[in-house]
Amino acid sequence: MKKLLLGMTLSLAMAATATAETIVLKAGHSANPDEPYHIGLTEFARIVKERTDGKVEVQIFPNNQLGNEKEMIEGLLLGTLDITVPSNGVVTNFVPKLGIFDLPFLFRDRAHMYKVMDGPVGEKLNAAMQEKGFRLLGFYEAGIRHIMTRSKPINSYDDLAGLKIRTMQVPAHVASFNAFGANATPLAYSELYGALQSGLVDGAEAANTNYNSKKFYEVAPYWAQVGWTALVADLIMSESKFQSLPADVQQVLVEAGLASAKVERQAYANSDNSLLASLKDKGVKVTRPDPVPFRQASQQVYDDFIKTDADRKLLEMILATQ
């Protein structure tokens, strides 16, 4: 009997030790499991598991299972989840300096965006995030953004006048669409399909990738290729959680974040660039309005949002990045 009890005690102790040695990190995001966010996080989890010899496991929860983007960011600070990858505009509610990435027509192309994110500008914004309690693990992207409408095509800048266009709850996005002549209507992403279907809004902005994956074309079949912004997404965790982990795990998380960002960005670029033909096959009416009037209208947004010397310096750094 004593041997049996001793054996049970040792087994329980070994199980407890094994459990204690395994660090489980919960990662949440808003996209479908076939979208680039999930592809990037899956690569992140693979690298972390491999380089820690299974000591750290990253569990991924897609499709807003752990809350919407703002709620997941709050969850980092509350300790209810460990990692998330929200669109940059939502993070600006917590780190206002990030708002510069939300300006329209900021990046010349994807290559320019990546160089900005991975260079001195990205380092400055990383420091700003740490000051607010967040650890940046990598900059993901959320695609080159265009405009969908439900009842009429956008053939020119003037066609947008007066339309209710859903935007993220991001000040620069709201200001941009108001400057374009639309009636910007901030709305939760999870409510967008129903809002388009019911006519609560006349249209919205998105990338080719999520326009397709969320089947927005079913309720908004007109798709204007404007490229009004290239959306940054921030792979983050709380700074306090990051600091609570062993130094070797911290290093792996940083390495995995940077490596997974390259995979996620490539997945977005591949998806964005390959979808137009299949969208047309689904009955989507693609138009290509002249972007010049949109760019000209955007100047008012820059005048309203670039107010301080620090803002102007950061903008100069972005525009000068080659």
Overview of the molecule:
With 322 residues, this protein is α/β, with parallel strands linked by helices. The chain has a single domain, classed as D-Maltodextrin-Binding Protein, domain 2. The chain is built from 14 helices and nine strands. Strands 1, 2, 3, 4, 5, 6, 7, 8 and 9 form a nine-stranded mixed beta sheet that branches. Helix 7 links the parallel strand 5 and strand 6. Helix 2 packs antiparallel against helix 11 and helix 7 packs across helix 13. The chain is globular, with a radius of gyration of 22 Å.
Topology:
Layout: H1 2-21, E1 23-28, H2 36-51, E2 56-61, H3 69-78, E3 83-84, H4 88-91, H5 110-118, H6 120-131, E4 134-149, E5 164-167, H7 171-179, E6 183-186, H8 192-198, E7 203-207, H9 208-213, E8 222-238, H10 239-244, H11 247-274, H12 276-281, E9 285-287, H13 292-305, H14 309-320
Parallel strand pairs: 1-2, 1-3, 5-6, 5-7, 8-9
Antiparallel strand pairs: 3-8, 4-7, 4-8
Helix pairs in contact: 2-11, 7-13
Averaged pLDDT: 92
Main sheet attributes: strand count, strand direction, barrel closure: 9 strands, mixed
Return the CATH class.
Alpha Beta
- CATH architecture verdict: 3-Layer(aba) Sandwich
* The CATH topology: D-Maltodextrin-Binding Protein, domain 2
| Class of secondary structure makeup | alpha/beta
What is the assembly state of the chains in this entry?
A: single chain
Q: State which percent range the strand residues make up.
A: 15-25%
Indicate the percent of residues in helices: 40-55%
What's the end-to-end separation, in Å?
Answer: 75 Å
Number of helices: 14
The Rg value, from CA coordinates, equals 22 Å
Order of helices and strands: HEHEHEHHHEEHEHEHEHHHEHH
Number of strands: 9
The structural domain count equals 1
Overall form: globular
